[in-house]
Amino acid sequence: MHNLVIRNSTIVDGTGAPAVVGDVAVDDGRITEVGRVDGRGERELDGDGLLLTPGWVDIHTHYDGQVTWDPQVSPSSWHGVTTVVMGNCGVGFAPVRPDGKDFLIELMEGVEDIPGTALHEGIDWQWESFVDYLDALDRMPRAIDVAAQVPHAALRAYVMGERAHDEATAADIAEMAALTAQAMAAGAVGFTTSRTILHRSKHGLVPGTSAPPDELLAIGSAVGTGVFQMVSDHAGTDEERAWLTALARESGATVTYALAQVGWAPLAYREALDEASLLSAEGLRVIPQVSVRPTGMLFGLQSSLHPFITHPSYRAVADLPLHERVAALQKPAARAALLAEEPATNNAIALGLMSRWDQIFPLGDPPDYEPAPSTSVAAVAARLGLTPQEVVLGWLLEREGKALLFAPLASYVDGDHEAIREMLDHPRTVVGLSDGGAHCGLICDASFPTYLLTHWARDRARGERLPLEQAVHLQTGRTAAAYGFGDRGTIGVGKRADLNLIDFAGLRLHAPEMVHDLPAGGRRLVQEVDGYRATLVAGVVTRQNGEATGELPGRLVRRAQPADGERR
Ligand SMILES: [Zn+2]
Question: How far is the centre of ligand 1, averaged over its atoms, from the C-alpha of 229 (Å)?
């Protein structure tokens, strides 16, 4: 008698191998048989007509605070994610000194747009060192597994205090490296840093943004064969390449960095892909991390940004409840005033983002993340003989003011997903950048794993799709391997029974919506989904037909320690 048997599903095992119809048996949280299972299960699930895949492993999230108050780790768990990696992009909440908490919250609020009030209210701070943080995570059961990385900014603030934004001394660097080594030995899965001027808080750039190679190499050597993750403006420059390659070579670390197609160098991503292949041939693990759709902002009356947000007439009604605001904005006089005004801000970045009329599209419901250029604000305005502002205002007021507009920031230079397809299809990339738990007022990409299936393996109409087996592999076997999670990411005997049973034809993303369910009433964008029939973590059904079962088998994943004699 098995604990559980899933019968007759179409098994897509996460390795990229062709789908097969068969049974899977589970005992003590692990997969014990795949194929034809003769023995009965104490519990049996009928998989007839359904896909069975490994649980999704999402390696790029920012749930560092949320996991201490939300055992469901939503919305990622709604989307079949069974393991998340947190602490990305250099920001997080450990290590922390008793007087350093506000600073880390302000950083997270500034960089990742998670409401500071929610973090203040939600986090219980049962830790000071990173090792304590791991233990605190370990004590709290949750629906999914979580793994944590050491964030550079928190480490700098801990070691350097007030000097966190300054150049580190040799002693500072030695201490940061020692603390990183300690955290890695206790089970941290990596170290992360931000090297982009786009990431800032009210304190300026993220501490460590311009850290020189000696600091990065010293900390990198403490990472050993773990992961060194970064987001950088300089990826691809000779200087950055030199230390990054040295780091991968000397430590054996897996280096992963955010890669997207950018407007000022639309083909640079191909050089990065070629470089990753060359380094791989040398045995180095330098893995560009890519997204499954353009990273983009969602403009709406409830969002952090939309084209009228600084207009004086809008400011006058901005604090009204949504339905009153919509009613006020629909009055002809208010409309006329709004359309006659200019944005009242000198922030050049915000101004630029709010007026790229050829890069703003209606998102719609079901949401369309690969909109045709002919549907942009600019194109529609030209066609109708209206101003872009008239078109945008009309769209923002749709769905009782809840309509969202999609404003891609990267990887939409050509107006389609072809650049993304090249990146996804490359053997040396890994999917990430969902930023689950972050950018609450403007982005909701925790649904990336679902989108890989709905869009890339099923619905894409404006170009080639990906085979289903490849799409599943990208979010399971591939992501798990990038972090050395050898016990998950594929369906095979001995692997953890982290599984998704999916009605593939019925899998459907809803339009994102703003909810106010964070601690202290904080707001965030979430996105619902239909079609996940069951999600299992360690053999326990955690969700069924879109509802949490209340079971909490998820734990902290500690990095497996290298055996003696292996490279550390
Ligand atoms: Zn991030």
Answer: 10
Same domain, 117 and 90: yes
Ligand 1 centre from 422 Cα, in Å?
Answer: 22
Q: What separation in Å is there between the alpha carbon of 433 and the centre of ligand 1?
A: 6
Asked if 342 and 389 sit in the same domain, the reply is yes
Q: Number of folded domains in the chain?
A: 2
Question: What count of residues does the chain have?
Answer: 568
236 pLDDT exceeds 80?
Answer: no
pLDDT (tens digit per residue) in 58-114: 999 999 999 999 999 999 999 999 999 999 999 999 999 999 999 999 998 988 889
Residue 98 within a domain: yes
CA of residue 42 to ligand 1 center, whole Å: 42
CA angle centred on 358, ends 352 and 361, rounded to 5°: 100
User: Taking residues 461-472, what's their average pLDDT?
Assistant: 98
Ligand 1 center–CA 491 separation, angstroms: 28
Question: In terms of domains, do 367 and 430 share one?
Answer: no
CA of 67 to the centre of ligand 1 (A): 16
pLDDT tens-place string over residues 19-54: 999 999 999 999 999 999 999 999 999 999 999 999
Q: Are residues 160 and 284 in the same domain?
A: yes
Residue 61 Cα to ligand 1 midpoint, Å, equals 6
Residue 447 C-alpha to ligand 1 middle, in angstroms?
15
Residue 524, pLDDT score: 96
| Global confidence as pTM | 0.96
Do 303 and 246 share a structural domain? no
DSSP string, 100-126: -HHHHHHHHHHHH---HHHHHHH----
Which residues span the domain enclosing 234? 56-295+412-446
Mean pLDDT of 317-326: 96
CATH number of the domain at 439, please.
3.20.20.140
List Cα–Cα distances, 412 to 260, 408, 416, in angstroms.
9, 6, 6
- Give the mean model confidence (pLDDT) for residues 140-163: 97
Please give the Cα distance from 559 to 483 (Å, whole number): 9
519 pLDDT more than 50: yes
Strand duo 532-537 + 499-502: pairing: antiparallel
Only one residue has tokens 């949750």, namely 142
CA–centroid distance, 337 to ligand 1, in Å, is 39
What is the number of alpha carbons within 13 Å of residue 447 lying toward its C-beta? 24
Average pLDDT, the chain: 95
Ligand 1 centroid to Cα of residue 253, in Å, is 19
507 CA from centroid of ligand 1 (Å): 26
Tell which phi-psi region holds residue 250, choosing left (phi > 0), alpha (psi between -120 and 50) or beta.
Answer: alpha
Give distance in angstroms: CA of 273 to centre of ligand 1.
Answer: 20
pLDDT at 568: 42
